Amino acid sequence: MTHDAVVRAIFDQAPALPLRLATVVADDESAVRALDQYHDEAILRLDRLDGHREWGIRLCREQATQTPSPKLDGDGGARPTGTAYLQRRRHALRAGEEARQQERALTEDVFTTLGAFASEMDRQPGASADVVLNAAYLVDAAAEEAFLVAAQSQVRALAPHGIRVDVTGPWPPYSFAQLRSRRVADA
User: Fold this and answer.
1) For the chain, which residues make up each domain, given as ranges?
2) Sheet holding 120-123, edge to edge
3) What residues contact 65, with CB distance under 8 A and at least 6 apart?
4) Distance CA 106, CA 14 (A)
5) N or C: which end of the chain has fewer CB within 10 A?
6) d(CA 108, CA 120)
7) Where is this region: Disordered (predicted)?
8) Are 172 and 164 in contact (CB under 8 A)?
9) What pLDDT digit, counting tens, does each position of 89-112 carry?
10) How confident is the model at residue 87 (pLDDT cuts 50, 70, 90)?
């Protein structure tokens, strides 16, 4: 929590490139060498982050979407024929696949719609059986209000589909502060 408090205090004053928690630098000389080596890329990244904050969007299923299973008893309680069972099973599988396709389309629409208000966007780890989208958006301060209005619109639009939209932030742009060059990745 102290690391986060320090990063937030710095970001309140100016853009920064926080090291990941538990990053180890052997000594002051090693830190100076790293700063020298990545100086140009760091300056570009700092310029990109200036005036931006991170917002998170998580889409969660309110109720588990399950493929309906075919009923074993037919009309009047009699066991269905094999053909009737297979037809119902095929229908249930098709309905489940259509529901998954609709959910993927809704998720992609949210991701790109909100991305229109962001300088950068990224899918984050954390998707699970109930989390269908976990995304981060780098939003310029001038666009934050429009971003939040669009996010609230998504909250209302997805509720009838059993999808909850969680909006988090604003955060220092942790997800967008990392240097991305091959040299940094190799270090």
Assistant:
1) 2-65+98-186
2) 120-123, 131-140, 52-61, 163-171
3) 96, 99, 100, 103, 162
4) 36
5) N
6) 16
7) 62-82
8) no
9) 888 888 767 767 777 888 899 999
10) confident
